[in-house]
Specification:
The protein is mostly beta strands and 437 residues long. The protein has three domains: 174 residues, Alpha-Beta Horseshoe (24 nucleotide stem-loop, u2 snrnp hairpin iv. U2 a', Chain A), CATH 3.80.20.20; 46 residues, no CATH class; 128 residues, Receptor L-domain (24 nucleotide stem-loop, u2 snrnp hairpin iv. U2 a', Chain A). It contains four helices and 27 strands. Strands 1, 2, 3, 4, 5, 6, 7, 8 and 9 form a nine-stranded parallel beta sheet that branches. Strand 14 and strand 15 form a beta hairpin.
Length: 437
């Protein structure tokens, strides 16, 4: 029997690992940690060959007695990194007896980096080429493990004078790549790795058909997540881009975590409220989580979202169905831009727009939205407040002609014609920029 399991947080006792039996896919993270009383013999004969995919991250911390992951997870093929542990998809930290990583079936870490640190007995790190598994290795953090010179790593065939493993160059060092003296490292295969009835398949651009004759409901759900769309005739073919995914109900985004819960959504079957006030790397995280949304069936509300400078992270949003109000922006102190309208198009099918107290959002930007979305004729007089939008931004500039320039040894005196806008309250002051000659 194969299962799609939820996140696993396994700690304290080796016997708790038994909860992984029959798990083929873990939809979430896998943590194994704090087993201080474990000995190497406790792990003999313990294996979970059905586990193929973890959709978030894998973390191992202070599991005593464990010397390799080779037997424990012999078929773990993909770590997707949908949600990360501080930007890492694979973390191995303070594993005091670990001698090798040994994940010889691991072909792809889709998102996130690798952190391997403070494992005093860990070898076979210099023989790994992480670029064969990751798209980018620059964020990897691999330090304070056993000195390479003390390891004596030997790849399969080396002792017999043969080159059996793939050879690559890292930092000018050309050598074979392996997980251990038993297993070579193989290049990851392009395409999606799917799992049906406990068996993993690597798909190319070709259509998947014969594999899927016995597709279960759970498998259909998983294939959709893996960017494959199962058709009613129970054959599967790659989606042209992300597979459609409708997310039900009203959604509130008040943190990066709540945004990550919407990863992969293309349609919001309700309203979406964004009121995220702070965080690090916000724009990139929001684009990764919300960048596939194309349609919002209700309204979009941006309310006291102090962390936002632009809405460009909603890069594929093209339709808001709307309600009495379709677009609502209130008290966003740092919002300066909606979208780059030269590259973005948005349709609002019904409802009005509301803009108040967006102090750095210029009226010209709001007017562009009205024009492009077709809401100008629907809006009422008080829906958009000219006084409280853009009142702390340089939205309109006019060239002033100097009538007098006098240079003294310690100052420059400038004079220009008196300037007053039609409403004197619109004039905040004058700014003179200069640079030394």
């Amino acid at each position: 029997k194969s299962l799609i399991c939820q996140s696993k947080n396994i700690r304290n006792n080796v016997t708790n690992l038994r909860s992984l039996e029959n798990c083929t896919i873990i939809e979430g993270h896998l943590k194994i940690l704090l087993m201080f009383g474990a000995k190497s013999g406790d792990f003999q004969g313990l294996s979970f060959p059905k586990l193929r995919v973890v959709t978030d991250y894998v973390l191992l911390f202070r599991v005593y007695g464990l010397e390799t992951l080779s037997d424990l997870f012999p078929n773990l093929t993909v770590i997707r990194g949908n949600n990360l542990f501080f930007n890492y998809a694979l973390v191995i930290y303070e594993m005091l007896q670990l001698k090798e990583v040994g994940l010889h079936s691991l072909m792809n870490i889709t998102r996130g980096a690798v952190r391997i640190e403070k494992n005093p007995d860990l070898c076979y790190l210099a023989t790994l080429d992480w670029s064969m598994i990751l798209d980018s290795v620059e964020d990897n953090f691999i330090v304070a493990n056993k000195n390479e010179r003390e390891c004596g790593d030997v790849c399969p065939g080396t002792a017999q004078g043969q080159t059996l493993c793939t050879q690559t160059t890292i930092n000018g060092h050309f050598r074979g790549r392996c997980w251990s003296q038993t297993y070579c490292q193989t290049k990851h295969l392009h395409g999606c790795i799917i799992s049906v009835h406990g068996h993993a398949y690597v798909t190319s651009k070709a259509r998947v058909s014969s594999l899927m004759l016995l597709v279960t409901t759970a498998a259909v759900k998983y294939l959709e997540k893996m960017k494959f769309l199962c058709l009613f005739r129970l054959t599967c073919e790659p989606c042209a881009g992300p597979c459609p995914k409708a997310c039900q109900g009203n959604k509130t985004i008040d943190s990066v975590t709540s945004a990550q819960a919407l990863r992969g959504c293309t349609v919001i079957e309700g309203n979406m409220v964004i009121k995220i006030r702070g965080g690090t790397n916000i724009a990139a995280e929001l684009e990764a989580s919300l960048g596939q949304i194309e349609v919002i069936k209700g309204y979009l509300s941006i309310r006291r979202a102090y962390a936002l400078v632009s809405l460009s992270f909603l890069r594929k949003l093209h339709t808001i169905k709307g309600d009495s109000y379709a677009f609502y922006a209130l008290d966003n102190q740092n919002l300066r831009q909606l979208w780059d309208w030269s590259k973005h198009n948005l349709t609002i099918e019904r409802g009005r727009t509301f803009f108040h107290f967006n102090s750095k959002l210029c009226m010209s930007e709001i007017r562009k939205l009205e024009k492009i979305t077709g809401t100008k004729e629907r809006n009422q007089k008080n829906d958009i407040a000219a006084r409280t939008n853009g009142d702390q931004a340089s939205c309109e500039m006019q060239l002033l002609n100097f009538t007098s320039v006098k240079v003294r040894y310690n100052m420059i005196i400038l004079k220009w014609n008196s300037f007053w806008p039609s409403d004197y309250r619109d004039l905040l002051g004058f700014m003179v920029l200069y640079k030394e000659a």
